[in-house]
Amino acid sequence: MAPITDVAGRRLALSNLDKVLYPATGFTKGEVLHYYATVAEVLLPHLRDRPVSFLRYPDGPDGQVFFTKNVPPGTPEWVTTAEVPRSAGPARMVLVQDLPSLMWAANLVTEFHTPQWRAGAPEEADRIVFDLDPGPPATVADCGEVALWLRERLAADGIEAYAKTSGSKGLHLLAAVRGASGERTSAYAKELAVEAERAMPGLVLHRMTRKLRPGKVFVDWSQNAARKTTAAPYTLRARAHPTVSAPVTWEEIAGCRGPRQLRFEAGDIADRVRDHGDLLAPLLDPARAHALP
Questions:
Q1: What's the longest Cα–Cα distance across the chain?
Q2: CB 107 within 8 A of CB 33
Q3: What is the rounded distance in angstroms from the CA atom of residue 203 to the CA atom of residue 143?
Q4: pTM above 0.85, yes or no
Q5: Over 70: is that where the pLDDT of 207 sits?
Q6: What three-state secondary structure class fits 154?
Q7: Cis bond leading into 137, ω under 30°?
Q8: Could you report the per-residue pLDDT of 64-112, keeping only the tens digit for each?
Q9: Where is the DNA ligase D polymerase domain (predicted)?
Q10: Which of 164, 174, 229, 255 meets the CB 3.0–4.6 Å disulfide criterion with 247?
Q11: Is residue 142 predicted with pLDDT exceeding 80?
Q12: How far is CA 196 from the centre of its chain?
């Protein structure tokens, strides 16, 4: 029988705490829950009011991995949900608003993915994102070179960019925007991806064509579409090791020289938050949001 735990006044049954989810390191479900409790203060603001898609891996990354977008069966009545538009009609999704709902969701063993808009305004993007994905033998160091170019290009339009690791092989660039639909944001992101390819034709690719990917960095601009989601800051990833989509400084990106750099696991994050705070906190300030040109 799963132990009952009180989390900020909510009673939760947290199950299989000794189950090893990351065999490469022996990282258990209990450690997953501890990680999310530890980073809740910086993670929750990036989830709040955003419909959450769960990429679940209840038996670890080597087991079944599947997306859950609708409210899962058995969701407690105190977990906030919201009706959101879908192409097939409205759907109801979870909003992770507080520590109890975060721990309930973490008990499902999940990556957290969010759209670039909030539940109250699905027609207006408040973030723009670029997913930089290296095709081997390109590495995260090559992604860093592209990220620095995009940072300068965004700055030329008055938009300040911030970065995090994807938790896999690449980087994510994010910026706070206002006054644009997902369609307009996607179009602008595509324009910059095309410009980056023209500026660095030997390194950058703006199309997803698989045969063109080796040795290049694919600048995925499509995650700005209203229907798309991106791994949230501080989420664990379903990889061989408990890697995290971790915010990074531009100095770290500029200094990256190889594939073993800019890779952070759950055990690294508490110290990074202590030393840096939330490097993505400016994304949460409406005053820092800029209109697209």
A1: 59
A2: yes
A3: 9
A4: yes
A5: yes
A6: helix
A7: yes
A8: 999 999 999 999 999 999 999 877 678 899 999 999 999 999 999 999 9
A9: 28-279
A10: 164
A11: yes
A12: 22
Virtual torsion, Cα 250, 252, 256, 258, nearest 10 deg: -130
Residue 290 pairs in a beta bridge with 177
Backbone angles phi, psi at 139, to 5 degrees: -130, -175
What is the pLDDT confidence band of residue 211, given thresholds at 50, 70 and 90?
A: confident
Mean pLDDT of the chain, nearest integer: 96
Q: Which of 236, 254, 226, 53 is nearest to 128 (CA)?
A: 226
Cβ 55 vs Cβ 109: under 8 Å: no
Nearest to 185 by CA among 133, 158, 225, 130: 225
Q: Of the candidates 76, 56, 68, 72, which has an alpha carbon nearest to the alpha carbon of residue 12? A: 76
The encoded tokens of residue 6 equal: 């009180």
Q: Which two tokens stand for residue 108?
A: 């499902």
Distance CA 161, CA 128 (A): 9
3-class secondary structure, 58: coil
Q: Report the C-alpha gap between 223 and 218 in whole angstroms.
A: 13
Both structure tokens of 219: 């600048």
Taking the C-alpha atoms of residue 219 and residue 17, their distance in angstroms, rounded to an integer, is: 38
Coil, helix or strand at residue 281: helix
Tokens representing residue 235 in the block: 């989420």
Tokens linked to 168: 């896999």
For residue range 143-157, list pLDDT tens digits in order.
999 999 999 999 999
Between the CA of residue 181 and those of 174, 190, 227, what are the distances in Å?
A: 16, 14, 12
Contact, 128 vs 188, CB < 8 A?
A: yes
Radius of gyration of the chain, Cα coordinates, nearest whole angstrom: 19
Question: Which pair of tokens denotes residue 276?
Answer: 């840096």
Does residue 220 surpass a pLDDT of 70? yes
